[in-house]
Design goal:
Blueprint (H helix, E strand, L loop, with lengths): L2 H12 L18 E2 L1 E2 H12 L5 H10 L14 E4 L6 E2 L1 H21 L2 H15 L4 E3 L3 H22 L7 H16 L7 H18 L2 H18 L20 H7 L18 H20 L8 H17 L22 H10 L5 H9 L13 H5 L5
Parallel strand pairs: 3-5
Antiparallel strand pairs: 1-2, 3-4
């Protein structure tokens, strides 16, 4: 689809006029193809090697982080037990951070071509694939989604760009298929950021496994949940809902939307909870949309893109300090959106040419974007003003 057509699609969405296309896995999966593509990696590498900003600064910050430490010792567990807010925390932080480290090392390998980073990434992935069998306790689905979002990003880069060999890549694939995918693929009826993060993991895992059936199932759930997570005026008087949640009255919907009874474009289901969890949901939406684009279906020109654009703009406005009106969350917001704007901003503003003033200001203010220590990492480096 040409840029003019995509712009027309976005405009049509504002009037609620665009039909939603059917989801379909590609006939042939693109690799590396989870959140970041070969072209994006090449662009980032060229900019870092040329000393260009903000990419060189972003790369230097990544390399100076604990996640790029070549002396890092993996801490795998057979069973990772995570309660609410990771209490208890038996391996939760270790798993998430080892997964982010594996991705960090994969990026460092690609940009520097220093084999030590590729081997460290492989060491981390091998350590976990040799040990882990399960996730337990109340936060198990979310924990699996967070770690399961980072692992395939790392694995895609290593498997498809490192020629030094990865003997245990098959065992790693088995881990993703047997330990991670079953925990996330059926979704969640908790707050929306749960299912969005879980579908991000399921989509990424499906790409690595080249599992078309799981990819289609995850994408369908993702589309339904995204529509129920970000409100557009074209939705009508009330937000859309996920059928399995049985939110069949106004009171139930208002309760699920944290007590917010006035619905405006760009509001999310968790805006009135806090911006941190809202940021998790927005980030997952952008990551799945980016993976889908790499795999040949550009969701940015559909309702997914319009909801992402509006959610970014709405939250960014208040994150930047706009006074909170009394009708919004009782006149008080808990800010802290996190480093989650680069991917959506780059896709919608830089690729499609859509004006995103508040999002642009926030994105540029926060550069270089780092990691949220859960499942987001180094997106100024990989997606900042990246045309690929």
């Amino acid at each position: 689809m040409r840029r003019t057509a995509l712009l027309a699609a976005v405009a049509a969405l504002a009037a609620g006029a665009l039909a939603v296309p059917a989801d379909a896995a590609p006939a042939t999966f693109a690799h590396p193809g989870v959140t970041v593509s070969q072209g994006q990696l090449d662009f980032a590498r060229s900019k870092v090697n040329a000393g260009a900003q903000p990419w060189k600064g972003a790369f230097d910050a990544m390399l100076a982080s604990k996640y790029a430490d070549l002396n890092r010792t993996p801490k795998p567990r057979a069973v990772v037990e995570c309660g609410s807010y990771s209490n208890p925390n038996y391996g939760c932080t270790d798993e998430r951070e080892d997964a982010i480290a594996a991705y960090t090392d994969a990026l460092a390998w690609y940009i520097t071509r220093d084999e030590r980073y590729a081997k460290k990434s492989i060491q981390l992935m091998d350590a976990w694939s040799a040990v882990i069998t399960d996730h337990t306790n109340s936060n198990a689905p979310l924990q699996t989604g967070w770690a399961g979002s980072s692992w395939p990003r790392a694995a895609e880069i290593i498997k498809y760009t490192y020629s030094g060999g990865w003997a245990n890549s098959g065992r790693f694939a088995t881990m993703l298929r047997n330990v991670y995918l079953p925990e996330v693929i059926n979704g969640s009826n908790s707050n929306g950021n749960w299912e969005l993060s879980m579908m991000e993991a399921a989509v990424g895992i499906s790409v690595f496994l080249e599992d078309r059936t799981s990819y289609d199932k995850a994408m369908a759930k993702f589309r339904t949940r995204t529509a129920a997570y970000v409100y557009l005026a074209s939705d009508g008087e009330l937000p859309k809902t996920v059928p399995s949640q049985n939110l069949n009255t106004r009171d139930k919907i208002v309760g699920y939307w944290q007590g917010q009874s006035t619905f405006v474009t760009g509001l999310t289901q968790e805006t009135c909870r806090d911006f941190t969890h809202t940021g998790y949901g927005i980030s997952a939406i952008s990551h799945v949309a980016e993976t889908s684009r790499i795999q040949g279906e550009d969701l940015y020109g559909t309702d997914v893109g319009e909801r992402l654009r509006q959610a970014l703009g709405f939250q960014s406005k208040y994150e930047l300090g706009t006074a909170v009106p009394s009708w919004l969350c009782g006149g008080s917001l808990k800010l802290g959106l996190g480093p989650v704007t680069e991917v959506g901003y780059n896709a919608l503003h830089n690729r499609l040419g859509v004006a995103m003033t508040n999002t642009q200001t926030l994105t540029e203010r926060n550069r270089p974007a780092g990691s949220n220590n859960l499942f987001v990492a180094w997106e100024t480096l990989t997606h900042g003003d990246n045309p690929s």
